[in-house]
Specification:
The protein is built from four helices and seven strands, in the order ββαβββββααα. The chain has 190 residues and is α+β, with helices and mostly antiparallel strands. It folds into two domains: 141 residues, Structural Genomics Hypothetical 15.5 Kd Protein In mrcA-pckA Intergenic Region, Chain A (Roll); 34 residues, no CATH class. It has a seven-stranded antiparallel β-sheet with strand order 4-3-5-6-1-2-7. The two termini are 17 Å apart.
Length: 190
């Protein structure tokens, strides 16, 4: 019977919580996990990424794109590192950093391992809210978009009026509270 990792992925430092939950076959690699996060969250594969053991000074590389990463040690290739080598028990976490400029940190937590009679590579289970637009400028850029859309009060932030006008045009039809689970499942499930 096939086994699957049940992952919860949440974007750090943003309230209310932005999250996705999905199953990924337990033979998958960190490269497969990267693709699952990109597709579940609506990211566009436009930037570099890394998986880390934590955040800040205590962080260390688990997997990513090999090459110049800024770490003292080489970063193992995400396509070659099996998830099972790191996710050995329920509750185990790592940090997924996407777009090393905007610096989006996601907490990736293994909820449990499950078995299923059905065979698949991945299945989206749930999620809430829309992830930020690509290249919006990190956490502060996200908040600028929310102020521009009237979701947050302008007086709580000190954004220039021209920045807000630009952000209103730039976000287009993106809405922070909209996540279409059925539509995302059609693209995600394999």
């Amino acid at each position: 019977m096939p086994k699957y990792f049940d992952f919860d992925v949440a974007l750090d430092d943003i309230e209310p919580r932005l999250w996705r939950e999905f199953l990924l076959v337990n033979t998958a690699t960190f490269g497969d996990l990267h693709c699952a996060i990109q597709d579940a969250c609506g990211w566009e594969y436009d930037h570099m990424f890394e998986f880390q053991t934590g955040r800040g000074r205590q962080a260390g590389p688990i997997a990513g794109i090999p090459g110049d990463s800024g770490w003292d040690e080489p970063v193992p290739d995400a396509e070659r590192v099996k998830l099972a080598s790191f996710f050995t028990r329920a509750g185990k976490k790592c940090t997924y950093v996407y777009d090393l400029g905007d610096n989006w940190h996601h907490t990736v937590r293994l909820k449990r391992t499950v078995e299923s009679d059905e065979k698949f590579k991945r299945r989206l289970i749930g999620g809430e809210r829309a992830f930020p637009p690509e290249d919006c400028g990190g956490i502060w850029g996200y908040y600028r978009c929310l102020v521009a859309l009237g979701v947050l009060k302008e007086e709580d932030f000190r954004f220039h009026k021209d920045d807000l006008e630009w952000a209103r045009e730039w976000v287009g039809d993106w809405r922070p509270d909209v996540f279409n689970l059925a539509k995302t499942k059609k693209r995600f499930n394999r």
